Amino acid sequence: MLSILSTPIGNLGDITLRAIETLKTCDAIVCEDTRVTGQLLKHLGIEKKELISFHGNTDPGKVDFVLRQLKEGRHLVLVSDAGTPGISDPGYVVVSKATEAGAQIEVIPGASAFLAALSGSGLPINQFVYLGFLPLKKGRKTLIDSFKGEERTIVFYESVHRIERTLLEIGEALKEQPDRSVVVARELTKMHEEFVRTTVRDMPSIAGTITKKGEFVIVIGATP
Ligand code: SAM
Predict the structure, then answer these.
(1) Residue 32 in contact with ligand 1 by CB distance below 6 A
(2) Which ligand 1 atom is nearest residue 159's CA?
C-alpha cells in the first residue's frame, strides 16, 4: 500500500489525525529530505521510522526500489518537504509507476500553499488555473502575456529571489488592465503570514516595498 500524505506548509499544527496515525503505523516513509521529515516525526513523537530519500525524476533506481517494497507488501508513505506531494514537488513518478504496477494507493489530503492562498485571497475561486512556478526563461513572457485574456483566477508559486521581478513583469504585461486584482500571499500559516491585496496599477510600488523574506504565492483575478 502507498499512502500519499500531505504535511503542513509551515504551522506544524496543520496535520490531520489520520496523517499522524498513518505516519505512526506505516513501515517506511519515502521523503524528499530525511532531515525535514525527521523533524516533523520528532515533533509528532514518532521514533525509529525508516526513511527512504527520493528526489524526483532523477532517481529511477529509487523508484524501482520503492516498487519492490510495495510488491513485498510493505506499507509506504509518500511525503514531500511541505504540503502535498506532486504539487510542484517530487512524487508524481512514484504514484504513476505504483499505479501502473497495480499497487494499492490511498490519499491522505491536507495543506497545499496554493489552496490556502486562494481561499484567503477573497477573489472568485470557483474556477482557477494553477501554474506551479513560472518558467525562468523559455516561454515566460508568452505565458505572462497570456494572463491578459485569462477568464479564470490565476495562481502560482514564486520564490523570494524572483518576487520583485515577477511583480514588475505582471505590472508591465497587464498595464492595460490597471484595476485587475493581485493578491500576494506570504508565509502562509506561519507567524508572519501576510496577504497583500492590491491591483496591477500598484505593481511597481508593491514590488519595491513587499517584504523580501519567506515563501510566496501570487493570485491574479480574472480578466475584467
Ligand atoms: N508541495 C507544496 C504545496 O503543496 O504547496 C509546494 C512545494 S513548492 C517546492 C514550494 C513553493 O510553495 C514555495 O516556493 C512557495 O511559492 C510555496 N509555498 C510553500 N509554503 C508556503 C507558505 N507557507 N506560504 C507561501 N507560499 C508557500
Answers:
(1) no
(2) 14
Q: Which pLDDT value is given to residue 58?
A: 64
Give per-residue burial for 11-50: e unless 16+ CB within 10 Å, then b: eeebbbeebeebbeebeebbbbeeeebeebbeeeebeebe
Q: Is 202 close to ligand 1, i.e. is its CB under 6 Å away?
A: no
Q: Into how many domains does the chain fold?
A: 2
* Shared domain check, 121 and 92: no
Q: Is the pLDDT of residue 56 over 80?
A: no
Q: What is the DSSP letter of 27?
A: S
Q: 28-51: per-residue pLDDT in tens?
A: 999 999 999 999 999 999 999 999
For 210-220, how does the pLDDT look when each residue is reduced to its tens digit (9 = 90+)? 999 999 999 99
State the pLDDT confidence band at 61, using cuts at 50, 70 and 90: confident
Which residue has the CA at smallest separation from atom 14 of ligand 1?
A: 159
Q: Which amino acid is at 21?
A: E
117 in the same domain as 89: no
CATH of the domain at 152: 3.30.950.10
Among residues 57, 74, 108, the one where a domain terminates is 108
Ligand 1 near 15 CB (within 6 A): no
